Amino acid sequence: MCTRCLWLDASKPDYVAYHDEEWGVPIWHDNKLFEFITLESAQAGLSWYTILKKRTHYRTAFNEFDVKAVAKMTEADVEQLMDNPGIVRNRAKIKATINNAQRFIEVQQEFGSFAKYQWGYVDFEPIINDIRGKEDYPATSEISERFAKDLKKRGFKFLGPTTVYAHMQASGMVNDHDNDCFRKQPLIEHAKSLDLRALLN
């Protein structure tokens, strides 16, 4: 058996698949980053597994996370989504997703891509943390504080420092796999091979 992160509930196959295949893998495609930001903001106050189980429904509800399509959603769309049992039916979060799509596009226009803006916070290289036990898992960081503060200034909603840190972990800006986890070193090597600075500049 391979060793995985201590936080993972290995009794849930879909959770294991997310850990093994997605969590901490560097993402630089804007469509995927918008998906992750949307799901993380929907998670606020809930467990990530709750959102993970609803992910397919979110993809359908929000046009496969096509940011331009989401940005154009109307109050009538909000009402329709409030009747959708497949997503978290929280009006403020639904409206925040539409707002965040609009702000996301503004960032794209300013920086060329959201990925370039986001990865600039870590100088285009994942931060590798020393995770030896559960007490070592950070919930936030100085960078997530700055990132969240700037997002708020730009008008994004439901993206505080803790939520932003979770986004940083999920999208590979931070490698927070346990030191003993079988995914830790492969992701370090993968990130080295990518050269995100060249990809995004």
Keyword list:
201 residues; mainly alpha; two-stranded parallel ribbon; 57% helix; 2% strand
Uncertain residue segments: none
- What structural class do you assign from the helix and strand content? mainly alpha
The coarse overall form would be globular
Beta-strand content: under 5%
Kindly provide the radius of gyration, computed on alpha-carbon positions and rounded to a whole number of angstroms: 17 Å
How many alpha or pi helices?
Answer: 12
Helix content: 55-70%
Number of strands: 2
Strand order of the largest sheet: 1-2
Instruction: Summarize the biggest pleated sheet.
Output: 2 strands, parallel
What's the pLDDT, averaged over the residues?
Answer: 96
Q: What letter string, H or E per element, gives the SSE order? A: HHHHHHHHEHHEHH
Terminal CA distance: 41 Å
Characterise this structure.
The chain is an all-alpha fold and 201 residues long. The chain has a two-stranded parallel ribbon with strand order 1-2.
Brief description of this entry?
Helix content is 57%, strand content 2%.
